[in-house]
């Protein structure tokens, strides 16, 4: 009984020894440069797509392209900014569109060449079918990666 009384008397003192809970840390604010790049990308894609504007998702390397005229939005996780908009030289005819980047799809790499041809294509990952085949490469290896493309929406 004496032990029970002693323990009951000590509990309030032990509770007072616990440290104060610390408030949760504020989530970090996005870096201004990241927000600027994302706003640039969203502004680029806000324009209405026209004939000859495409969207392409490559699964290896993991790079996404979407153009509006002679500007190309690039999303990639490898290095430099995750999102950016770059100028491209555009050429081709009514069945082939060629987009030549003035820089690499990943910063620091060789300038890219994105070729889109009007041919049936089935995405091996999703089974989706489109009417366009896309190849990505450089001037030394113009058809390094293959994927399906679709008109931009």
Key attributes of the depicted protein:
153 residues, alpha+beta, two-stranded antiparallel ribbon, 2 helices
Number of strands: 10
As residue ranges, the low-confidence spans are none
Distance between the termini: 79 Å
β-strand percent reads 35-45%
Adjacency order of strands in the biggest sheet: 1-2-3-4-5-6-9-10
What is the mean predicted local confidence, pLDDT? 81
> Helical percent range?
10-25%
Choose one word for the global shape: elongated
Number of helices: 2
Compressed to H and E, one letter per element, the order equals HHEEEEEEEEEE
Largest sheet: 8 strands, antiparallel, barrel
Provide the gyration radius in Å: 27 Å
Alpha-beta content class: alpha+beta
Compact summary:
It is built from two helices and ten strands, in the order H-H-E-E-E-E-E-E-E-E-E-E. With 153 residues, it is of the alpha+beta class.
Question: What does this molecule look like?
Answer:
With 153 residues, this protein is an alpha+beta fold. It has two helices and ten strands. It has helices at residues 2-16, 32-46; strands at 54-59, 62-68, 71-75, 83-92, 96-101, 113-117, 121-122, 129-130, 132-137, 145-151. The strands form two sheets. It has an eight-stranded antiparallel β-barrel with strand order 1-2-3-4-5-6-9-10. A two-stranded antiparallel ribbon has the order 7-8. The longest helix has 15 residues, at 2-16. The chain starts with a helix and ends with a strand.
